[in-house]
Amino acid sequence: MKKHAGFFAVIVLFVSSSSFAMEIKEASNLIIEEVEGHHMVTVPVPYYGASAPVRYLLVPKGEAAVQSIPDVVAVEVPLERVVIGTTSAVACLDVLGSLNSLIGLAGGKYVYTDSLRELNLPEVASDGGMSRSLDRERLISLSPGGFITYLYGEEERRDVDFLAGCGIPVLFMAEYLEESPLGRAEWIKFIGLLVGKGEEAEAFFDKVASRYRELEALGALEQDRPVIMSGAPFGGTWYVPKGYSWPSILFRAAGGISMWDDLKGTGTAPMDLEAVLDRAVSADLWVNCGTWRSLDDGRSSGVPVEAISPFKAGRVYNNDNRINEHGGNDYYQLGVIRPDLILSDLLSIIHPLALPDHELVFYRKLQ
């Protein structure tokens, strides 16, 4: 196993058992085990291109040591002072009633929660994650018990190792690497364990998963399967969801089918405008159309939208119904841990009679 500075052997004396068994049911990139009565959290792929997993041993404050566990990051829990660099973790803290533990932000402009923004918490970076704008000295001055964030590549590890050397564990929130919507949502269990709300997090997820399955069953009853096109061009390229990506999974669960359902794999694939237009003739609905706030935005985008069937029919929906004046979009915050709400929206859009009383949460119809 590759060793990194800051990933050190942990010696722990277990004088009491304060954990409970926690089962991971949907996430494929999160493992939670018990080690002598304590939680060991493993993230097999903490970021794109990672050469080794990371492991965290969650040690209740005040406990001492005997057993050596190599290449493990020790984290004293519950975290009472935490800095966050990802809005999905903000959502977790919010629903668990633990926002009072938050003492700093990276990328605060992306946070949807106005009440949190009004607190004017210290900013350690203008962008989320381990960005180049990270102010390491300011982060250290806050004396957090941990920094919950994400990485996009190995080149950002230098800050992780530096902070670890200063006694600040960096906790990878890698839910974005999950393709299953419920797999992403289940990462609330990791956050729950970190802030002493593990049982609450488990109960929250179970309710979300149960409702998601109920909606999925409704979608499965639908015989008609409308074709869904999604996205908008960015820099001249249209990134479309592959057949096993999480948007395509949601479209199928809602009784539809992605326009690119035949593309094997997860994530997205780059397409030119001509390829998209060739397929768009079969589309029934258009969703997730980038920064467009109106149909006129589409008309002025350079895309020949009037030639696209769902645009002509006025069946265009964007996932920006809950966005604040600073650009914080709750679809990428609360939506990560509430895929049942996203699925409710999509089911009511694709099959209006399936949920006749549903009011859209994250989506809205463009006018």
Structure, briefly:
The chain is an alpha/beta fold.
Question: Could you please describe the fold and organization of this structure?
Answer:
The N and C termini lie far apart (54 Å). Helix 6 runs antiparallel to helix 7 (198-221) and helix 7 (198-221) packs parallel to helix 13. Strand 2 and strand 3 form a beta hairpin. It is built from 13 helices and 18 strands. The chain is of the alpha/beta class. It is globular, with a radius of gyration of 22 Å. The strands form five sheets. It has a five-stranded parallel β-sheet with strand order 9-8-7-10-11. A five-stranded mixed β-sheet has the order 14-12-16-17-18. Strands 2-3-4-6 form a four-stranded mixed β-sheet, with helices on one face. It folds into two domains: 10-206, Rossmann fold (3-Layer(aba) Sandwich); 224-365, Rossmann fold, CATH 3.40.50.1980. The model is unreliable at 1-17 (pLDDT under 50).
* Separate helix tally: 13
The value of Rg in angstroms is: 22 Å
How helix-rich are the residues, as a percent range? 25-40%
Largest sheet: 5 strands, parallel
Shape: globular
CATH superfamily of the largest domain: Nitrogenase molybdenum iron protein domain
Distance between the termini: 54 Å
CATH topology of the largest domain: Rossmann fold
Strands, count: 18
Oligomer: single chain
Summed up, the domain count is 2
CATH architectural type of the largest domain: 3-Layer(aba) Sandwich
Q: Helix/strand/pairing class, anyone?
A: alpha/beta
State the CATH class of the largest domain: Alpha Beta
